[in-house]
């Protein structure tokens, strides 16, 4: 694949091409090889002796610059006798006159790695940021034109038009805990910022049925009441958890028909109560790392869960959900390849999964570095970053006048808007939705 130059300045665009199939012949290198082929051909592969003493195929790189994103390295589940695709990237903290980029296998003693169709493509910070802005413009924003006319259809020039975004289409949210109930500072801080939420622990099986048959939905009911009152979208997390540590203790002792009856009752109880309330369901949590139900109910246990949930709550989007998919390369259970393989298995079995959940447990020491607020709900530095991002992702209140054709043009983030129009002693207000489309939205207003 070749990078696209969109403007005279040569804006370079990241190529999102990726595949997990193992192919008989290697594909052509992305970006025509990038800086690995600047001399007109594919860069020579050398061999590097690692700290373990093993020799790995490598590229010698010269004069790499700091604060530049290089798209290259990652982790893949390579298979024998075919070509597997490997893709990723890195950023240097400081410049380097001489570097070695090498490839190694988890089994360094018996595996021989061959490299073909390699590429290394640098992106400046400005190029990377410009691509982000262009992607946002294409996927989260839309052009709109307000046309103002009188009751006879004559266009009015010079009319004052004010645009105010009332609600955002893009869901941006956080987990909430039961401590939000009755806690006004917590509630106000959350509602001011977010339009989506997920309950932290309150829907989990161990919380709603700590003992067999002792169902208690009081807390999630109250949290859902808060969600509804503030018109917040909410996800369902989770129906089952494959980790036995977080499975109710009484369930861990069940097998066979008794366990089957318990899981059927769990699905029926939960979804008959909350059908239509949760837009997403994390059906079987952390399937890549654990298999509590598969070990006891057979290899298709989770597939059966997805199928049953789909039948009861057909409008909800069903998710796989797991950790260490994007946080690290050191967890063989949850590589991107493994995630895709499991996703395909469930879909091919009829599970109809439409959502990919990435837990994203990035670790920083100390709450001050990771928490959004202090105990009194005053922003910490991380909270300020969230606020800055939310401001970037909303349409600022704007005002202008219609042109000679009675039109006023703006581009805005998708969502709900209030348009106020006035001229002389006449005025009106109109609300409208700016939805996803490649076409310009036209709004006709009469005064």
Automatic annotation (TrEMBL):
Q: Which domain of life is it from?
A: Eukaryota
List the keywords (alphabetical): Carbohydrate metabolism, Glycosidase, Hydrolase, Polysaccharide degradation, Xylan degradation
Question: What is the recorded name of this protein?
Answer: Putative endo-1,4-beta-xylanase C
The segment(s) forming the GH10 domain are 157-447
Q: Which SUPFAM superfamilies match?
A: (Trans)glycosidases
Membrane-crossing segments per the record: none
InterPro entries under this entry? GH, GH10, GH10_dom
- Species, as recorded: Ananas comosus (Pineapple)
GO MF, one term, reads: endo-1,4-beta-xylanase activity
Family under the similarity heading: Belongs to the glycosyl hydrolase 10 (cellulase F) family.
Q: One Pfam family, short name please?
A: Glyco_hydro_10
Q: Which GO terms describe its biological process?
A: xylan catabolic process
């Amino acid at each position: 694949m070749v990078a696209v130059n969109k403007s005279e300045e040569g804006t370079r665009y990241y190529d999102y091409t990726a595949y997990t199939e193992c192919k008989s012949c290697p594909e052509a290198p992305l970006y025509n090889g990038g800086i690995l082929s600047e001399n007109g051909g594919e860069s020579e592969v050398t061999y590097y002796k690692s700290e373990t003493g093993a020799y790995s195929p490598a590229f010698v790189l010269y004069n790499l610059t700091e604060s530049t994103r290089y798209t290259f390295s990652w982790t893949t589940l390579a298979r024998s006798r075919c070509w597997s695709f490997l893709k990723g990237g890195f950023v240097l903290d400081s410049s380097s006159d001489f570097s070695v980029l090498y490839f190694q296998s988890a089994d360094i003693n018996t595996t021989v790695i061959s490299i073909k169709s390699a590429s290394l493509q640098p992106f400046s910070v400005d190029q990377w940021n410009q691509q982000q802005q262009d992607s946002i413009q294409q996927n989260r924003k839309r052009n709109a034109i307000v046309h103002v006319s009188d009751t006879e259809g004559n266009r009015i020039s010079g009319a004052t038009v004010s645009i105010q975004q009332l609600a955002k289409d893009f869901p941006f949210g956080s987990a909430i805990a039961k401590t939000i109930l009755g806690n006004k500072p917590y509630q106000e801080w959350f509602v001011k910022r977010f339009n989506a939420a997920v309950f932290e622990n309150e829907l989990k099986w161990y919380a709603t049925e700590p003992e067999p048959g002792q169902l208690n939905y009081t807390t999630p009911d109250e949290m859902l009441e808060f969600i509804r009152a503030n018109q917040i979208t909410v996800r369902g997390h989770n129906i089952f958890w494959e980790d036995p540590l977080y499975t109710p203790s009484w369930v861990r002792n069940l097998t066979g028909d008794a366990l089957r009856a318990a899981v059927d009752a769990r699905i029926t109880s939960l979804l008959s109560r909350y059908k239509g309330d949760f837009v997403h369901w994390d059906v079987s949590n952390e399937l890549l790392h654990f298999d509590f139900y598969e070990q006891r109910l057979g290899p298709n246990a989770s597939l059966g869960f997805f199928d049953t949930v789909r039948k009861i709550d057909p409008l909800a989007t069903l998710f796989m959900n797991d950790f260490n998919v994007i946080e690290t390369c050191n967890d063989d259970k949850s590589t991107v390849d493994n995630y895709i393989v499991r996703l395909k298995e469930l879909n091919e079995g009829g599970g109809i999964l439409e959502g990919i959940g990435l837990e994203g447990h990035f670790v920083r020491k100390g709450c001050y570095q990771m928490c959004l607020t202090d105990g009194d709900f005053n922003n910490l530095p991380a909270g300020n970053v969230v606020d800055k991002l939310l401001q970037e992702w909303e349409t600022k209140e704007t005002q202008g006048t219609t042109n000679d054709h009675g039109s006023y043009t703006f581009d805005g983030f998708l969502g709900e808007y209030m348009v106020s129009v006035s001229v002389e002693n006449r005025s009106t207000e109109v609300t409208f939705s700016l939805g996803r489309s490649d076409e310009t939205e036209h709004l006709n207003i009469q005064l």
